[in-house]
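Deviation from plan, reported transparently: pyridoxal-5'-phosphate complex.
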Amino acid sequence: MTQFVCNSCSKKYDMTPSLWRCECGGVFNIAKDIPKIDVSSWNNYPNSLWRYFETMPFEKGSNKWQSVTMGEGQSPLIVLDPAEPNVYVKIDYMMPTLSFKDRGAAVLMTKAKELGVSKVIADSSGNAGTAIAAYAARCGIPCDIYLSDETSPKKVAQVKAHGATIKEIRGTREDVAAAAQKAVNEENVFYASHVYNPYFYEGTKTYAYEIYEQLNAASDALIIPVGNGTLLLGAYYGFKELLENGLIDKMPKIVAIQADNCAPLSKAFRTGEESAVPVANTGTLAEGIAIAAPARSQQILEAVRNTGGTFINIEENEILSARAALSDKGFYVEITSAVNYAGYLKYNKAPEEKIIIPLCGAGIKSK
Ligand SMILES: *Cc1c(COP(=O)(O)O)cnc(C)c1O
Ligand SMILES: [Zn+2]
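Because the crystal trials were delayed, the predicted structure below was used instead.
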């Protein structure tokens, strides 16, 4: 029986489909040990993130994923510019719904299907909702997606196409989440939340496993955009598992990127706080990382600090020029994803430092 353990008070619960948060308000982790990695098992699986199935908390031999997968994962790792051979982009927009959220959604919805849930609810600034809607459709599970009424029309169209019911909420990102959570509690259904459900991170951790296979090592640094921290924490957990199994000999430094107009984590990092104090989002083009009150802030700050990493803030006027600069090199990313490259340009790198910049969302998703 899988158990959840509260990140704040350590209370343990038997996992049930409608349980999503501790009674103290804390977020859950899965109660489990670091997996023993058997690299020789990887070739028994298709060339997708499911290569690492045996590192995920599923019963051995459980095969629900086979009917859920759309081939997500194993995104290319490419040198961005031959003049800088140690700087790579990992092209995570090459996914079924065109963002890295498919890593988490595929694993989380596989778990939902295994549990036999009758309906899922999620809230999102766009891409997580799109990914959950797509995988819910794949699973044949009805799905309500809560979105702000200001969500990019292209992302709304994507969600709608998968047959999800869209609940448009007027208000902040936090108001959207609160409306979804109220519905989850009232309807007693599965909260397919990329923020709260720890199975999502079992999917995003494969970002690290793939880098390990592509480089035969960890990189020195990882540039990672952060709003709720789903890629950041996944990458951290993945590399930690590789480190504790002796497959790599050091953790990559996490260089976390926030939009200056909505940067609660960066502020807490600088002031030495253990968790973030919510800020007011004063408006940013980087809609996908505009999270004023990240629920996993304590874990994100700990991850960045444990790797000797840092935070970099991006100003509004740096975003579109970074997007144009990437397009000039052949890569067309959504506006939010341009902050990753803007962050790289501001990062004070060491000579020969091996750095990976994720390209998180495809250009056609935004204006
Ligand atoms: C979700 C997303 C992010 C940020 O991820 P968080 O989990 O909120 O930290 C960054 N870029 C894109 C394109 C995204 O879809
Ligand atoms: Zn608790």
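DSSP finds twelve helices and 13 strands in the chain. We consider this an acceptable substitute for the interim report.
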